[in-house]
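Researcher: Structure for this, please.
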Amino acid sequence: MLILASQSPRRAELLQQLKVPFRTCAVEIDESVLANEKPEDYVCRLALGKARAGQQVTGADALVLGSDTSVVIDGRILGKPEDKQDCLRVLRLLSNRVHQVYTAVAVVKGNIFRQCLVQTKVEFANLSDTEIEWYWQTGEPRDKAGSYGIQGVGGQFVKRIEGSYSAVVGLPLYETSQLLSEMGMSIYER
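Model: Predicted structure, token format:
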């Protein structure tokens, strides 16, 4: 059985779409950005760190999946908003611009691991202060990287994407199924 090293309901919902049996495992790792760390390297390090932390909890023989998603603009990683003012600042920054969403997935078993990185470009509409304030009041952006959720109310602000929608939500389905297959878990044979 696969272990998802995450408590994210969005990742669990996406993984359910692949119809693989799994259970979740809560893990805690330091998510601080290292000095001069590129966003791509950051999400890859965290995805692998989460998978390995899950392996510590469940045992070396377990097949463990870790993932991390970051919203990036102007080379800067935008985490979850600290408070209302931070959220408003971030949404104003994203307004009428294209940003990147990087999602890394890592699968580990024993000493073997496979990893991938998916980049998706997201174009936001021009947001008024009224729309931004209203969106904050919905409560949705409070726990979302980049202060929005494409799968929820925030999806109405997205003009277009170039890349993987499921990666923006938190788990790229195609790439995840490929990694699981590489690690010996065929999702088509059960």
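Researcher: Any notable elements?
Model: The chain has six helices and seven strands. Strands lie at 2-4, 22-24, 63-73, 76-78, 98-109, 112-124, 158-162.
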